[in-house]
Amino acid sequence: MKYEWRKKEKDLYLPGSHPAKIAVPPIHYFTLKGKGNPNGEAFKENVKALYALSYAIRMLPKKGITPDGYFEYTVFPLEGVWDLDEEGRQLEQLDKNRLVYKLMIRQPDFVTAELFSFVKEVCAKKVSDVLIRSAKFETIEEGLCVQCMHIGDYDSEPITFSKMDDFCASNNLTRIDKRHREIYISDPRKSEPSKLKTVLRYKVK
Predict the structure, then answer these.
(1) Could you tell me which of 134, 147, 130, 127 has the C-alpha nearest to residue 79?
(2) DSSP conformational letter for 77
(3) Model pTM?
(4) How many other CB atoms are there within 10 angstroms of residue 159's CB atom?
(5) What per-residue confidence (pLDDT) applies to 1?
(6) In this model, does residue 189 exceed pLDDT 90?
C-alpha cells in the first residue's frame, strides 16, 4: 500500500487553523539554499531541481533499481525555512529581495547519502551543474515548535503569525529566532490565492 503523508502524518502536514505545539523529530531532506525574491527565476530553478531529485528517487524501480527498504509513497511537499539578510532585518517593511531561504523536500527513511549521490548523477542532464553541486542530503531536527495552517495568499501570512505569537504569550513559550518554516500543501499554480494552504511553523522554548 502506498505511503500517503496526507493520511499518515496529519500532525506534521495538516494542522488545524488554531496554533498548537508540536515536537518535530529528525527528518531526512534534500536541500538547496538561495536568496532573493521568491517570484524570481532563481527560486523556480531551485524548486525544479529539488523535485527532479525527489522524483528520481521515487521512480528508481521503473529503471530497474529498487533500493533496500524501498516502498511506494507520495512525494512529500516542498518546504522552506525563511530569513532576511542583515540589511533586510533593519528595514521597517519587508523587502523580498533581501530574503534568504533554504528549500527542502523530505525523503523516505530508506534514502541514504549514497543513494543521493547516485540520483544526482541521474539528474545531471536535467539540473544545472551549480544546483547539483549545491544540493545537500541533510537530517534536520526542529524540536519543539508552534505551528498553524494558514489559508490564503502568502502576503497575508502575518495574520496567522500574529495568532501564533498570541498563543506563545498565553502558553509561556518564547520564539527562538526570526526564522520560520513554510510547508506548501497547495500548488500555487493550481489553486486560487485565497485558498492556498501553507503550514507555518517556528521554533520555541
Answers:
(1) 147
(2) P
(3) 0.97
(4) 10
(5) 87
(6) no
